[in-house]
Write a structure and sequence with these properties.
The chain has 311 residues and is mostly helical. It contains 13 helices and no strands. It has one domain: Orthogonal Bundle (MetI-like fold), CATH 1.10.3720. α5 packs antiparallel against α10, α6 crosses α8 and α10 packs parallel to α11.
Length: 311
């Protein structure tokens, strides 16, 4: 188990380092941040002074080495716009994103798991076709378009919900629906496939042959075995939730990490953008690591195979 854990941790560390490296070079090769931060008529002396102040006058390899050393000390840099600690700015916005992501996650589970299970148990019937058609529609609908439709209907026409903002449960309704629709749709389709796969296994047919009730077969045999791939899916979606909230947060003016990322990119605020990318990468990698560990704990065969392949 220790070897299994060490291999996963090493892979996670290399993945985060790769994301940090990519963000660093892409941001610096995409143009001079001073062009976006300072007035267009700024004198050359002022531009050069700020380049020296921010270390942008140094060769790119030296900047990268200094960046890695700073990360090793837990220093994510400071905002080029207001001089505040970049990590502190991201942490301030993390609460709003976690609130939205947690609500979306709960909504997706409450809708997707029952819908996918019912569709699998009633395969080929009208309820199955109706559920899967709704899932395909929900998955295909672009987030920004669904968000705009909800604003037009519930905010502008019916005047039941605020169109943007943060602070009350009413502000959370439309962003959660917008972001949660696609997640619930994907989860319903995934649960249906997983449950159908388990229903076709010999041990399920044996359980039915022992005259166990349908509910007992589902609870004792179907759900535990169908849960393993579903846990994998949920872990991936949980990690991607922060990155996927970028569009939704900007449509509804939700003050989370996604909105901060868009604003910081427009301002060419290098330290803040790099920190947001790092936070998203760490969240995705951590979720995947948690899934790997949970998978190995639920099914020891995965743990043994992972350790053997690592050697």
């Amino acid at each position: 188990m220790l070897r299994f854990l060490l291999v996963r941790l090493l892979r996670a560390l290399l993945t985060v380092l790769g994301c940090a490296t990519l963000a660093f070079f892409v941001l610096r090769l995409s143009g001079d941040p001073l062009v976006a931060l300072l007035p267009t008529d700024s004198p050359a002396e002022l531009l050069e002074r700020y380049r020296v102040l921010w270390g942008l006058d140094r060769p790119l390899p030296e900047q990268y080495l200094r960046y890695l050393l700073a990360l090793a000390r837990g220093d994510f840099g400071r905002s080029l716009v207001d001089g505040r600690d970049a990590l502190g700015l991201v942490i301030e916005r993390a609460g709003a994103t976690l609130q939205l992501g947690g609500t979306v996650f709960a909504l997706a589970i409450l809708i997707g798991v029952p819908a996918g299970t019912v569709a699998a148990l009633r395969r080929g019937r009208p309820s199955d076709y109706l559920t899967m058609s709704a899932a395909i529609f929900g998955y295909a609908m672009p987030n920004f378009f669904l968000g705009l439709l909800l604003i037009l209907l519930f905010a502008m026409q019916l005047r039941l919900l605020p169109s943007s903002g943060y602070g009350t449960p009413a502000h959370l309704v439309m962003p959660a629906i917008t972001l949660g629709t696609a997640v619930a749709a994907k989860l319903a389709r995934f649960v249906r496939t997983s449950v159908l796969d388990v229903l076709g296994q010999p041990y399920v047919r044996t359980a039915h042959g022992k005259r166990l009730g349908s509910l007992a077969v589902i609870v004792r045999h179907v759900f535990p075995n169908a849960a393993i791939p579903v846990i994998t899916f949920l872990g991936f979606e949980l990690g991607l939730m922060i990155g996927g909230a970028v569009v939704t947060e900007n449509v509804f003016g939700w003050p989370g990490i996604g909105q901060l990322l868009v604003v910081s990119v427009a301002r060419r605020d290098l330290a803040v953008v790099q920190t947001v990318v790092m936070v998203i990468a760490v969240s995705v990698v951590s979720a995947n690591l948690a899934v790997d560990l949970a998978y190995g704990w639920i099914d020891p065969r995965v743990r043994v195979a992972g350790g053997r392949h690592a050697g």
